[in-house]
DNA sequence: TAATTCTAGGCAATCGATTGCTTTTTTTAA
DNA sequence: TTAAAAAAAGCAATCGATTGCCTAGAATTA
């Protein structure tokens, strides 16, 4: 059992025959302390290996320089990059990040939110989990005076700052690209429709079909195919149809697109000649598959930076001006070999 | 400007005409409170939307149920998986995780350590950054009564709990496998030798050569080739030698191995027939390259679980028994096509 | 019924840093 | 030389929860 007594400002004050308040002032802004005593205090603190107790300071001041981030999983490229972007900015400002994973579970998400709230973080940045019921826990955050920023997967109905990709526009662009390459029967692998990002991607797909006056064929739209395995299964089903698709837009993820590619390989179907494939997210593997996979870059690092900047803007403006602000980060279509029917 | 007053136990106490201490007891262990008042307090707390202020509680009790994790980057498979493993255990125990990235910078690592220490986390779990000078900051942690567990990249000279892979053994295994497949001139891409994991991998490589009485050829050992680009550059250099290698063990990472593969493709060199390749880490892309890449699975999730378990064991035993404990997690060689010279 | 033990609840100190206010000391101005 | 102003330092309350100790009343026992 360790019973280490840490050095406090009282210890320093006692040693120097000063008052703790002077020590505190010397350590912080340096106001109301003479230069000489200030230097003495700093030196002594260093010698005694003094470390501020942030907990005590936070209790007194009521705020701590910490931002909580909740994502479904940190080991997905997109989220890892957003976090990297957030961190770039927060690090500069001297803020700490607390990163939590909801593992796509609503229960866990609620727990994370509560923990962060109990710790009085200044801001919570969240991308909601796929499995959710309601947003009471998020509304609660605001009631406690904690800033809330949603990104990517956002709850539209909630009145918060939001940073999102223009999913619809880029999805439309992707499908238009496929159509102009000569694909006619384009299937869609769609994600859980309770998440708006997936609704938007579907809307983009539909808009592209409409623009080119192509029919919407219900049997070509497959639900919830967002892992490699599910993507593969959906593809098997699609290719077994009487009139199979000649292209698949895996709007859920690149993992799903990978499943499509694997099945095509297996069945000896030529990509992109007989089947076009477009994924989503620009996972690193999409450029090393054979053929490389056309996908969508979400500019995730930029998104992260934007999110963090938004918080500090609000903070520095001193007002909650930006409450219901929506920022769009433009994603980009990355055209690779898997959709180049014409040029082959 | 928000000036939200949060509900405290005093508010609850006042409302119910009770003493805050009773409220606290009711909310926690429930001792010394009658069942009826306890239920009343719980109900009222719920109604008033009371949330405990962990900061205040932590200040009083002197400990918080938080564990800090510092890794070079969270967006590397290995680290993300270790974190996932840690979280699985800590979540069960009701502990929180604070995740920080050092970005391979010593400065940043020190800042992370200090921040976590100031927040009085109960334990710091760290994999040190590649760029480092000394370990004063880590020694300091212990002086402050915070448990310290190192994993993967550890500072040998520091007296802490450590959880590592048996890098040497599995590296030897990998090189032996390549030799038995008929490769004779095996090159090594080595990592920064100030990190013991890379020294160990090199030792395994040397041990394998020795076992098979193969000569150690200095010009086949390349330093610091641990990104895709550096791996590619090193490969170009190696293949331009008068006597080029017939296999490359990219002991630094799979990314490096990917660079090797790309250069081989470019130069029209057949893998595995003319050149064998073995990477390290079992990144997901290694199974979808063409050919798939032989690599080493580090059992990272298991490692994470082990780390967390180690902490709780120490905690529950109540003693610092396990101080200088070393746990080895057995990695596995994953044989794929890139080294199968014989079977082709 | 009286003596004893339990229970429920109250009181107040504590954790360590911060900060408004007051007092003392120093400096400047008259 | 003295009065006024400014700087430096001290005092004490505060943030919110926890906890050792104390007491009044209830329950138990003799």
TrEMBL record, chains A, B:
CDD domains: HTH_LacI, PBP1_LacI_sugar_binding-like
Gene Ontology molecular function, alphabetical: DNA-binding transcription factor activity; transcription cis-regulatory region binding
Protein name as it appears in the record: LacI family transcriptional regulator
Keywords recorded for this protein, A-Z: DNA-binding, Transcription, Transcription regulation
Domain HTH lacI-type residues, every copy: 7-61
Top-level taxon of the source organism: Bacteria
Protein species of origin: Pedobacter steynii
Matching SUPFAM superfamilies: lambda repressor-like DNA-binding domains, Periplasmic binding protein-like I
Keyword Transcription regulation among UniProt keywords: yes
Keyword tRNA processing: no
